[in-house]
Each structure stands twice: as C-alpha cells, then as structure tokens.
Amino acid sequence: MNPINRYITAVAAVVVALILLSACDQPTPTPTPTRTPKATPTLTASATSTATATPAATATPSPAATETASVAQVPSTDTPVPTPTPTPSATPFPPGPPSKLGLVVGYNHPQLFDLLATGNVAVVKTLEYDPNFVVEIKKVSPDTLIVSRYTPLPLPDLNNWDPIAAARQFADLLLPIATEPRRLASIDCWEAYNEPTVTTVEQMASLAVFEAERTRLLAEAGVRSCVGNFGTGQPPLELWPAFFPALEAVKQYNGFLGLHEYSAPEMWFAAGANQLESGSDEGDEGWLTLRYRKVYRDILEPAGLAVPLVITETGVDGLVSGRPGPAGNGWKDFADYWRSQGLVSTLPEGFYVEQLAWYDSNLAQDDYVRGAAIYALAVPTGWGTYEILGLPADILKQYLAVHPPR
After folding, report:
1. I want to staple 403 with a disulfide (CB 3.0 to 4.6 A). Which of 2, 99, 140, 334 is the partner?
2. What are the residue ranges spanned by the domains of the chain?
3. Which tens digits make up the pLDDT trace of 212-244?
C-alpha cells in the first residue's frame, strides 16, 4: 500500500472512532410496538389501494422535557411516535350499467334501506313478510321486485303424495296471508317449496303438477307465483322437459321461475374455464353459477318457455360438492384462503363484492333475468358466515350507487 493510501485509511479510522464515541453519549430510545390505526374503510371494492391512515397521537412530553427543549434545543428523549401501518380499503367501483343484484333478507334491518335508497336493488327475497315492512320497501324503491316464501312449508315426499291436493292445501294456507291488502300491493310473487330435490322424471312431473295448480289457484286471487326454486346444480338437465307444465302456467299467469346459483371457493368456479378438469371450458356457461344459461339456451328457449327468471339465492357457498379449496360454508370461511392464493389485494369483503360484480356483469347480458338475490343481508340464525351486514354491504352500496337505476 502506498503512503497516500495508508494516510487516508488512518484518517478514516479516526473519524469512525469519533462517531462511535459520540453515539455512545446519546440516549437509546425505548422501542414500542407499531400501532395499526383504526381507519374507516372507503365504501369501495377491487384493485390495489390503501386508505389514508389515521395519524398516531403525539406523546405529551413532561414539563421538564418541554423546558429543556425550549432553552437548549436538546432532542427529546421521549418514546418516538411510531409510523402508523396503513389499513387497506377497497378500491371504488367505476360507473356501469344498471345492476341486477338484489338481497335475501331474513328480517327487517336498517342497512337494507340504505341499499334500497340507491334505487338500484333489483330484487328483495324476504322471509319476513310483515305488511309494514314490505310496504316500506316499495315506498323506498318502487321498482324492486319483492319475492316472499311461505317458510313453514316442509318438503314433500315426491314419490308418495297427491300434488293437486297439496296445491289446494298450500293455497288455503297462503291466500289469507298473501291477499292482505298491503301484502297484495307490495309482494310481487310467492315461492312454495325451497330447494326441492328431484332425481327422476316422475318426481319432476309430479312437482310440475303441483306448481302449475298452485300457480293457477293463487292467480285467481291476484297473487303471482315463483316456481321451482331449485338448489344449485339442480335439477339434472335431462329432467327439465317434465317441468314444462309448471312453466306454461307461469307464462299464462305472469309468474317467474326461481333458481339458486352458488359456487365456491369463488363464485366463478365451474363456470367458463374454471373447471376441475384441466383444459375443460364451458365458455360463457357454467355447472353451478351461469348454469341457468344451459337451461334456457338448450331447453326453454327452443320450447318457447323463456319465462322471467329470478335467481332467488346466490353467493359463495362451500356446501356445493366437487370443488377445490378448504372446507367452509359462507364467504367468510374463505377469506383466509383467498388471501393465501393472492386473490385479495385489499380486503376480503371487497373481493367478495368483486365476485358478485362479475356475476352481475353476466346477468346483464340476459334479458330474461330479472334479478339475483345475494344470500344474505340479516341472515336467519345459524347462517352467520353468509352475512353481508356491515362493511360488505357498504362496499355493495358503493357499487350500486355508480350503476344507474333501471
């Protein structure tokens, strides 16, 4: 090493030593955990974004520390204020066409009316048919279709029953309720059995007799019907022709066909290219969600029976079979899984509404679809993992607010 380099190295060593001695004279601050502020999420959904975090409160110095700082300008030795960790919020949805999304409600809740005030809730499927409640729904949102279900009705034994007698019994039970003047003016149609399971042509034909007869009996009193209300992935496609008598009654008496469409771990599983079998692609149809297109395109439209359709329940439901992902029921059970798969850029609530928006964009393409009711706002007891009260409904409200009323 030449002399100049030895000199530079020696000087550098002295400078470093002086810096270290100076640092030893400074007090070492006591570290404190980073505080995550409670930021109020933006009422939004989708892509990547972060909310502006609420600043941390500044620690109040002692009187002695204040005096010293004012005279000598010595740096404070108080605990440093931690930098807050931003809490993500969902990204606002952009404006779009009128929505066909709606809600299933188990009971009256104020947040329903916040959503109705957007003027863009297509359908409300209600298990609560108090006259004051349904009147208020129509008052706030006159164009919202109200579907109700007579909840005490048990499923029949389709192999051992008299469908005509059952239809008359149903009409006798329902008509005193449905023809009450306020309900009659507000509820647009009534369901009968919830998710009947049919596995044979004979069962399907028998159910069709029941639905056709009860549709006729209710129509004579000015009450419309929503028939079918089959569960997700049901019934087998080859059984639909046996249900034609019910759909002919719907067409004659201005009723509706009801179907349920769920999927999991995301709503698009089993639709399009999102199949278990690699390389399989259903195009713009599906076996769970968007299954209705197979029914209408291949069976009902050729028969002249493309009656108005209401998806009376939809969303994420882990009870569907033959799917990937973890065990679970409602959407809340899949939040951690979505994160682990890198699907959530901000909030799981926002990602769930993104899935509903995807479904809505498909519904908009089919004129015969009247609406699809998300299960659920204000859920019945035991169904809490499906609940969208609170933040999910706030995000949904923002989505609805930027889609013009029909």
Report:
1. 99
2. 102-401
3. 999 999 999 999 999 999 999 999 999 999 999
Instruction: List the alpha helices (DSSP H) in 309-347.
Output: 335-340
DSSP structure string for 374-394: EEEESPPTT-GGG--TTHHHH
Burial class of 126 by CB neighbour count within 10 A (0 to 12, 13 to 18, 19+): buried
- 145-149 and 256-263 beta bridge pairing: unpaired
Q: Which residues contact 186 (CB under 8 A, 6 or more apart)?
A: 131, 134, 135, 137, 138, 146
C-alpha–C-alpha distance, residues 157 and 148, integer Å: 23
Q: Which CATH number fits domain 102-401: 3.20.20, 3.30.450, 3.30.930, 1.10.357?
A: 3.20.20
Determine the length of the chain.
406
Secondary structure (DSSP) of 27-43: PPPPP-PPP---PPPPS
In this prediction, residue 78 has a pLDDT band, given cuts at 50, 70 and 90, of low
Distance CA 54, CA 60 (A): 18
Q: Taking a C-beta distance cutoff of 8 angstroms, is the pair 74, 89 a contact?
A: no
Amino acid at position 70, single letter: S
Strand partners, 257: 227, 309
The two structure tokens encoding residue 253: 């008496």
Q: Are 50 and 358 in contact (CB under 8 A)?
A: no
Q: Please give the single-letter amino acid code of residue 392.
A: P
Residue 20 in this model has a pLDDT that exceeds 50: no
Q: Max Cα separation, the chain?
A: 113
Query: At 148, phi and psi to the nearest 5?
Result: -125, 160
The answer to whether the beta carbons of residues 100 and 364 sit under 8 Å apart is yes
Answer whether 0.85 is exceeded by the pTM.
no
